[in-house]
Amino acid sequence: MKHPFAESFKIKMVEPVYRSTRKEREQWVRKARYNVFNLQSRQVYIDLLTDSGTGAMSQQQWAEMMLGDESYAGASSYYKLKESVREVFGFEHFLPVHQGRAAENVLFSVLVINGNIVPGNAVFVTT
Question: Does the pTM exceed 0.70?
Answer without folding.
Answer: no
